């Protein structure tokens, strides 16, 4: 593992200058999308910077310079940084700990593309080159008076500098308005060409964006970000929570969250410690967490070290259990927890139909309603390969990669793990009366469509407490359509599929009775009345119709096909 550089300085004056400069430079997400094509931005999300390097070659405007320097990891001359950040300057960047001066040799090795006036060039040899290369008297060492002051070492007037952190703009359109932030995190392998350090702090990746998208964005009095990393979740929470607390076991993550809060003028209470320990005795209206849940055997930890950003140090998948069991004590009544998670599925269980039993056991006895979604399932080999590559596996020697892979895979085999489910969990804390009758839970395998947004999660949790079905008048969502498949010549459809245009974007096979109820659900008649009519028209007992449609209708309500 590589050694981390020191954390940025929490110098409010210098941070204020940096903020003023990046705002003045129009270094925004919108501007970034004009500087770099959609294809290059897409490649950048896949950790390929070369297309962006080609497109930004030779560009000298401040936003382009800052993009090359902080996002693509290319060195820049101090003069270019002075122009891009006129208030802070290159010296200010260095004082903040965001950049360092490097020599010509290091700059030359880091420059992927040739730069005008950039890399040092050898002096051309003339026809007297042989004579010029011969030793001269002036090249010999000379005696110096011991009382004479030593000359100051020559300092390059315009030195090269390299970024020590990733810094980039991030924009969000939230219910309270549009926001633009600048977020610092540790440099990734694509920028450094080196494996990640043990205390690496991630930037904004795909998993982070998923959690940001699915978080309920209603105004709350208090919110908690557990495992805050670079602090982006906490920045979002600060837009709709009166009080925000962010915790992390990593002191480095806490420092970066504090820096990003200062840079973006957000008030965030940052506390170091494991999971809920820093907030013992406190309760919150909303908790979000992308905890370090990667299932890592001790044999791999011993060889590679504990990567704090993804490995909480607990055995197997017990970190997720610890979060779920500990969360209710920190939740106000009616409060919500949203988290990303994974869980082991034994080899003797079907990962598509028997995956939820483990999570279900963790939730037993807790005063919560729960919506749990398994969005993906990986066999152990795919899971191991994914996480080895995540931590710089492509930079490992083949022997080291194979050693780590086989050790990890053997551990899953000894544990009897046949698959690993990956998804998310949403909880709502029950009040005293609700808790007396026990929590309600719903488990969904995949969603077959869009990632859930905050309103989808809020609705799914609320629907678990829907009124009595038979006495409720339901309304079909306006974007619901039905697809029918017929055997040629048959008057009756063999297969009916309901499609949802928005929301979770699901496509769901349904029976003809369910189709009839959904079609008649316009908010006027109750489900019981419609079921009775279907029973009469089909000459089927009403109890049999109810038994057929009850579970599918509750699913359709949870997924947003029907509302009440």
Topology, please?
Blueprint: H1 12-24, H2 29-35, H3 38-45, H4 50-56, H5 62-71, E1 76-77, H6 78-84, H7 89-96, E2 99-102, H8 104-110, H9 129-132, E3 160-163, E4 166-174, E5 177-185, H10 189-192, H11 206-214, E6 220-226, H12 232-237, E7 241-248, H13 251-263, E8 269-272, E9 284-289, H14 298-304, H15 318-326, E10 331-346, H16 357-363, E11 368-378, H17 380-390, H18 398-415, E12 417-429, H19 432-436, E13 441-445, H20 454-463, E14 473-476, E15 480-485, E16 495-500, E17 507-510, H21 512-520, E18 522-526, H22 527-538, H23 542-559, E19 562-563
Parallel strand pairs: 6-7, 6-9, 7-8, 9-10, 11-13
Antiparallel strand pairs: 1-3, 2-3, 4-5, 10-12, 11-12, 14-18, 14-19, 15-16, 16-17
- The end-to-end distance, rounded to whole angstroms, is 55 Å
Rg measurement, Å: 29 Å
What's the overall average pLDDT, rounded?
90
Domain tally: 3
Percentage of residues in strands? 15-25%
- Residue windows where pLDDT falls under 50 for at least 5 positions: 116-144
What is the CATH topology classification name of the largest domain?
Answer: Rossmann fold
**What is the subunit arrangement here?**
single chain
Number of helices: 23
Fraction of residues in H or I helices: 25-40%
Strands of the largest sheet, in order across it?
8-7-6-9-10-12-11-13
What is the fourth-level CATH superfamily of the largest domain?
Answer: Vaccinia Virus protein VP39
Reported CATH architecture of the largest domain? 3-Layer(aba) Sandwich
User: Major beta sheet, specifics?
Assistant: 8 strands, mixed
Q: What is the class of the largest domain in the CATH system?
A: Alpha Beta
Number of strands: 19
